[in-house]
Specification:
Layout: E1 2-6, H1 16-19, E2 24-28, H2 34-40, E3 46-49, H3 57-62, E4 68-71, H4 81-86, E5 90-93, H5 99-115, H6 117-125, E6 143-147, H7 151-162, E7 166-170, H8 176-182, E8 185-186, H9 189-195, E9 198-201, H10 215-220, E10 225-229, H11 238-246, E11 250-255, E12 274-276, H12 285-303, H13 319-341, E13 347-356, H14 364-379, H15 389-395, E14 399-405, E15 413-421, E16 425-433, E17 437-443, E18 446-450, E19 455-462, H16 467-477, E20 482-489, E21 495-502, H17 508-516, E22 520-527
Parallel strand pairs: 1-2, 1-3, 3-4, 4-5, 6-7, 6-9, 7-8, 9-10, 10-11, 11-12, 13-14
Antiparallel strand pairs: 13-15, 15-16, 16-17, 17-18, 19-21, 19-22, 20-21
Helix pairs in contact: 5-7, 13-14, 14-15
The chain binds nicotinamide-adenine-dinucleotide (NAD) and 3-phosphoglyceric acid.
Function: Catalyzes the reversible oxidation of 3-phospho-D-glycerate to 3-phosphonooxypyruvate, the first step of the phosphorylated L-serine biosynthesis pathway. Also catalyzes the reversible oxidation of 2-hydroxyglutarate to 2-oxoglutarate.
Pathway: Amino-acid biosynthesis; L-serine biosynthesis; L-serine from 3-phospho-D-glycerate: step 1/3
InterPro entries: ACT-like_dom_sf (IPR045865), ACT_dom (IPR002912), ASB_dom_sf (IPR029009), D-isomer_2_OHA_DH_cat_dom (IPR006139), D-isomer_DH_CS (IPR029753), D-isomer_DH_CS1 (IPR029752), D-isomer_DH_NAD-bd (IPR006140), NAD(P)-bd_dom_sf (IPR036291)
Amino acid sequence: MQKILVSDTISEIGLKKLLEAKDIQVDIKPDLHTDELKNIIGQYQGLLVRSQTKVTRDIIKAAKNLLVIGRAGVGIDNIDIKAASEQGIAVINAPDGNTISTAELSFAMIMSMARWIPQSHSDLKQGIWNRKKYVGVELNNKVLGIIGMGRIGSEVAKRAKAFHMHILAYDPYITQERAKQLGIHLGTIDEIFTQADFITIHTPLTKDTKYLIDEKAFSMMKKGVRLANCARGGIIKEEALMKALDEGVVEVAALDVYEKEPPLDSPLLKHPKVITTPHLGASTQEAQLNVAIDVAQEIYHYLKNLPFKNAVNMPALSPEILHHIRPFISLAEKLGVFISSIILGAIEKIEIHYSGNIADQEINILTRNILKGILRQHLGVAEVNDVNAPLLAKKRDIEVLEIRSSKTHGFTNLITVKLKTNIEEKFISGTLLNGYGPRFVNFNGFTIDILPEGHLIITDHIDKPGIVGKFGTILGKANINIGTMQVGRNRAGGNAIAFLGIDREVEASIIEQLNQVENVNDTFYVEL
Ligand SMILES: NC(=O)c1ccc[n+]([C@@H]2O[C@H](COP(=O)([O-])OP(=O)(O)OC[C@H]3O[C@@H](n4cnc5c(N)ncnc54)[C@H](O)[C@@H]3O)[C@@H](O)[C@H]2O)c1
Ligand SMILES: O=C(O)[C@H](O)COP(=O)(O)O
């Protein structure tokens, strides 16, 4: 039974897929204190959160059995992705489900700022009829600066266009072609600061966007600019915003998110020109249902080894791509297990060549599986998975090289894994033979045809009469049956190899006996 902890308020209707799964237990415990979460997280394979639960390195360290963290929403800044990746925990979010709701709230903020709706509403509720104080501006013909032209930014742009606003967007990661498609003008951040009548922010909080709107930015802005942030606190430097409001540079600010949440002691809450909502961007019935359905489905798929698309710390594979690549995944891992089991010394470099058809595929997942196969021999099965394998290699200063080539080498597809240690260099090549499945086809230059399955003994020896017979005698005495055998040599009397497929696991003492046979250089046992 796999256990999932839901530690924030997430739509239970949306979680149906997980709640109805017979072999999954879902515990719903919103509003857990950090210490309580730390105490119980060790029991769970899955953790489902929104933005409230802070999944810190400390929590992740305590999460000994955690396989996946699901975020019912977009922002993942409450999750220590680096710590999760290092521990091999996949992080999956639900980026699409709350786009419209957040775009609509952002637009509501823009309209509220234009017409002083919250302030005049609040006055009137207190019996103050003040028509002169609340003269607003039209949106018509105004310049709307959008910082971050992703899902939400694009939806805000569509709505603003309907109001005949001119859109000036800044997003270093979108192309002119995309801007043209959206019917917007792409400019620099400085152009936004100097030209926009309204500015709305839709980027994630990153090291590049932290305090993107600071004193310098405010000093460039048009006097009377209206500024909305429904993205993340910390993109606007709040101290600088207070000053800009007091100096009249910013006429009105609308904030849904804050540097510290809840911002109960922030002076911004008391400022008459600041409109505030308590992080409500995604708080609609529709968005909450959408993100819960999306994340529940993704977590279910992740736990059941089915295709998933929104992992933030590993590549997403569509069912179509997965269909093509899936048969190669097990071959890739076996190539990794094999080569690292038969090499001596500390690994310095891993070179992976993808040739033929496979070179055009999404190979990142194959590389991850090769690295997983290699590193598991040294670090243990529990320590290494698809998520953390590249990071673990990097941490150990192992150089990893991926080389794609259209050359076929006689096979429609071929994966070669070359390992260099401080002592030696070896390689193994494998292919998927149409109709026959995976095969190892070359080992260190020796042509072979090995089904990569079960128990294998591999010897490196000198080609002399009687050697193979001696192997048979030693194994026979130990009651170990040889099911398959292949030998190869570079020339008569030269270097030779033998691959013996045996029926059961073999003890180290038997390998030692094989190693003692005259003219044998090395003997290895591999289980695939
Ligand atoms: N208030 C809420 O409740 C709420 C709800 C949903 C999302 N959000 C926030 O909104 C953000 C945007 O959501 P989205 O779904 O549109 O994400 P998205 O990934 O689709 O879009 C983000 C855009 O920001 C751009 N960007 C990144 N760094 C930038 C930089 N330095 N300068 C300019 N642009 C940059 C990216 O290229 C991307 O196009 C999320 O990261 C989340 O933090 C808040
Ligand atoms: O990043 C998001 O998806 C939003 O900030 C929503 O956060 P919430 O799920 O805590 O409302």
